[in-house]
Design brief:
By secondary structure, the chain is an alpha/beta fold. It has 13 helices and 12 strands.
Amino acid sequence: MRRLLTVSMCLAGAVLLSACAKQAGGPKKTVIAVIPKGTTHSFWKSVHAGAVKAEKELPDVEVIWKGAMKEDDLEGQTKVMEDFIVRGVDGIVLAPTHHGPALQIQVRNAKKRGIPTVIIDSGLGGTEWASFVATDNRNGGRLGGEHLAKLLGGKGKVVMMRYLEGSASTENREAGFLEAIAKHAGIEVISDSQRGGDIERSMKTAENLMPKLREADGVFCPNETSTFGMLRALEDAGLAGKIKFVGFDSNPKLVDALRKKLVDGLVLQDPINMGYMGVKTMVQHLQKQKVEPRVDTGCGVATPENMDDPTIQDLLNPNYKKWLGED
């Protein structure tokens, strides 16, 4: 009986080893890490959806999504990138929290290990990344400035609340906005030096700006958190709907504010396309195909008048839940 049991165990072990060997000999997937600035905003969920969409189209590719919760956590993002370099993924798609040296060093370290990087959303200094896939942020800021100038009839006083220093995407939007406004001699910028950040910090900055806002005819904010923080402060002060307001990006509450005309315009990116093209561009690079150094993922302006147009709706309400299994 003992001999029969031993033979049976050996046979079972042989079958298991054979199955494992077969599995190990299967095709190896290309592993691409996608590192966003943050993970809680609607914008980043949409970028995630785009990355998943690309993964589903590419059966030999595995996408790993991981990032810090907050957009201003440079240390956290740097640690995530370090971990992926040590792990030895095949490629990294990175939305840099800051354009400075900390992440440039990580991109350089990845390249030394044979791991290329594609940058998305926000620019990064240096030249060691493979491609930059993003909105033309300067043009997006210009679109916001042109829309606000039109709303004001080319005259009045405006306030611009900036985002965090070192964020290349928002710095370009701010510069584009000021360029557009400078073309209108009748418009005076009465404040453009104060910075928001996350929603709470943006709301606090807006509250501190209230004396200027009460004097202003229009206001511009360069991203989702600064726009939403400003909206909350204007609502609390009874100014929402009384001052022309153009923001950047969307979430359900901003879409509702646009419909109620508490916000007069939202410059919109295409975050699903950004995540999708980030992964696709990385795969093309890994396959030794030529990739463009700069890929523009597009943008437009939503207004209370055009917000129900199908093209604008796709940008206002990107269906990220479909791809993330949240339906």
